[in-house]
Description:
Radius of gyration: 17 Å
Strand order of the largest sheet: 1-2-3
Strand content: 5-15%
Number of helices: 7
Shape: globular
Low-confidence stretches: 163-171
Amino acid sequence: MSRQDRSPIDVAYYYPAPYWAHGESDWVKSLLLFFDRLAILLPGYMYGRHEAADPTLVAPLEERGLLQVLEPDDWVDESMTNELAEIIVELLTNGAFDDLSHDVHFHELSHSRMGYRADVELADFLVDELQARDLAHLSEDGVSGSIPSYARRFSSFLDSSHEREGVGQVL
């Protein structure tokens, strides 16, 4: 049977966190009732943490090919970084974040998800613009930055809205 003759694979993309906590195992398992496999976006420097967080579920899912680990280094390319920059600049220019509370919890977002692996200058520009508006903080770990929780969810939404090879309606 050729690849075109097979039905599409439905993949559940888990976000906004890069992996689930042990207490969420039942919820994650229930996703497999509706989807063919799960996908997580996990920066390379975090590889292994997903299994440490839930070893009883992650290892069997990976062994059976039911968990797909997407790496931002492969996922967030120059094209996606440019699209992200255009959207963020438009939102900043139009004042979309001006009236939002700055008294929120900041979450880490890996440099690779911010486009640093694809275009360092553009990613630096975006981070500088966000920092100027108190929408980003300097990295404490050297591999990520901090952005407000609502902005992290927005970033994860943008990541998930870009169908790439191996995710979404796959044949």
